[in-house]
Amino acid sequence: MLYTRKSILDIANAENFAIPAFNISDWAMFNGVMDISEAKNAPVIIAIHPDEVAHVTTDLIPAMHARAHRSSVPVAIHWDHGGTFEQMMVAIRAGFTSVMIDASMKPFDENVALTRKVVEAAHAAGIQVEGELGTIGANDSYGESGAAEIIYTNPEDAVRFVEATGVDSLAVAIGTSHGLYPADKKPELRHDLLQEIKAAVGIPLVLHGGSSNPDAELRRAVELGVNKINISSDIKVSYHNRMREILGTDERLREPNAIQPACIAAMQVTAAEKIDLFGAAGKAALY
Predict the structure, then answer these.
(1) Is residue 268 within 8 Å of residue 40, measured between CB atoms?
(2) How far is Cα 103 from Cα 84, in angstroms, rounded to an integer?
(3) What is the CATH number of the domain that holds 19?
(4) What is the pLDDT of residue 139?
(5) Strand partners of residue 82
């Protein structure tokens, strides 16, 4: 079922688990994520970043609505890392049921002003809003923007931000980075800080840059109150690495239905691992 009018994260917050937000870049990936979520009886968030929106176009959204409506699990279609009010208006008109406005690189007051403006417009349309406070790191140049240096979310500022904006969920900076970590970089999450923020604000918290973080760190983050974890790089690597193996040097191999099924299956293995890790398997029954 397509989840609208209220946050898909509210039950995750109440029941202490996290919903994976899988970034998809084409119809095959979308269907693959939907199929594995249904097989695991897990609620799912389909996330599309502005770069991905430019690739698939908003024309795809009505077809995603149709697939979500007949799904056996709750589904939210989420605009990920919107940077402007105009982008959020595009998302609302296109049929996204959840949006993220990321003004985290702006000064606090400007972040609050833009986020509050988006919340007012989105809530009038029955759409949930995620904001961000603090900055996420960046390991490579793909996809979502990130900062050269992580600015950790301050718990007191988080309280002020939530009260001033009315956001439904908050993306926090506790040490993650977008993309894949290089071999010489060891991710280390500030679980102590996460615990403080959760106790202070109470609303669903979001972790961006969840790919390639150690399972134990992510599991502990869920235990401490993270209710949505964005996964993009991990599933795309699984998908495209398998595609490289299949294609090899055979120039005669050209039909997508001969190439993509095994790639989707590889992606689904990774997605299933995340669903289990975040405690989302079987939780569709709670909705």
Answers:
(1) no
(2) 8
(3) 3.20.20.70
(4) 47
(5) 101
Q: Enter the tokens of residue 92.
A: 């609302």
Rounded Cα distance between 177 and 142, Å, is: 12
Residue 131 placed within a domain? yes
2 within a domain of the structure (yes/no): no
Count of domains observed in the chain: 1
| CA–CA distances in Å: residue 48 to residues 7, 35, 121, 143, 168 | 17, 18, 20, 10, 19
Contact 138, 173 (CB under 8 A): no
- The answer to whether 24 and 285 have CB atoms below 8 angstroms apart is no
Residue-level length of the chain: 287
Give kind and range of the element (H or E) at residue 156: helix 155-165
What per-residue confidence (pLDDT) applies to 213? Answer: 78
Q: pTM to 2 decimals?
A: 0.92
Q: E strands of 107-243, at which residues? A: 128-133, 137-138, 169-172, 177-178, 205-207, 226-231
> Quick one: 1 exposed, middle or buried, by C-beta within 10 A (0-12, 13-18, 19+)?
middle
Cβ-based burial of 66 (10 A; exposed 0-12, middle 13-18, buried ≥19): exposed
CB environment 154-176: b (16+ within 10 A), e (fewer): bbebbeebbebbebbbbbbbbbb
Among residues 176, 136, 133, the alpha carbon closest in space to that of 156 is found at: 133
Distance CA 241, CA 232 (A): 14
Residue 4 counted as domain residue:
no
Domain region containing 217:
9-286
Positions in the chain whose pLDDT score sits under 50 = 139, 141, 143, 181-182
Q: Looking at residue 151, what is its pLDDT?
A: 86
The pLDDT, as a whole number, for residue 282 is 98
pLDDT at 147: 53
Residues forming the active site: 80
* Assigned domain for 22 exists: yes
